[in-house]
Specification:
Helix content: 10-25%
Number of domains: 1
Mean pLDDT: 97
Structural class: alpha/beta
Number of strands: 14
CATH architecture: 3-Layer(aba) Sandwich
Number of helices: 9
Strand content: 25-35%
Strand order of the largest sheet: 4-1-5-6-14-13-12-9
Amino acid sequence: MRILVAGESWTTHSVHIKGFDSFETSSYAEGGTEMIAALRAGGHEVTYQPSHVAMNAFPATPEALDRFDAIFLSDIGANSLLLPTGTFVSSKPTPNRLAAIRSYVERGGGLLMIGGYLTFQGIQAKGNYHGTDVEAVLPVVLRAGDDRREHPEGITPEIVDGAHPVMQGLAQWPMFLGYNSATLRDGATLLASAGSDPFIAVQEIGKGRSAIFASDCGPHWGPPAFLAWHGYERLWCNLAQWLGKEI
């Protein structure tokens, strides 16, 4: 399968103050390394666009997206897709890539939204997917505001539909440290829950399919035990194959 993964990157700029003196440092990090490695280990071809790359490089039309069997959006806000440099800096009209994603799904593509501080609605609602074309094809309805559910004590997902192909081989789940809260959409299928919220949900929509995984694919909501979990590779490959109609 050919999979496009967008997001999961950030730059940190820090000011260190030591008495009279101060200095600055900057660092760059990517959070999807383990998930991408798992997909590739499962035999899938992954194109990775970090958030700052996706701003201008993410495909702009349904036809351009059609070369991928599935799209994974992970910790990348809607604004990064709505406001490429041509529009934000130069005030030029550009295609609405959220509308392109919706059309891509409805005509047969697969979409997975993975949780984080900048997907779903995220921290301070800056993910900004509520009311968009992307929300319209998700198996959940998003909250209007900040939708984080922080669980520093840990929360373990509960399997609801273990017979679904996505859940095959996925038992004895590890704990997570948080997730994004949403409401299951009518007609969608709940596969796992966290508290009273959907944790994994799927939906057939138009000719395509969509799914959500409400927590992180890695740190920080996904602790080391999740990355080391026996089902880690199988989880992402199962989701990809279901979205691509291979299972």
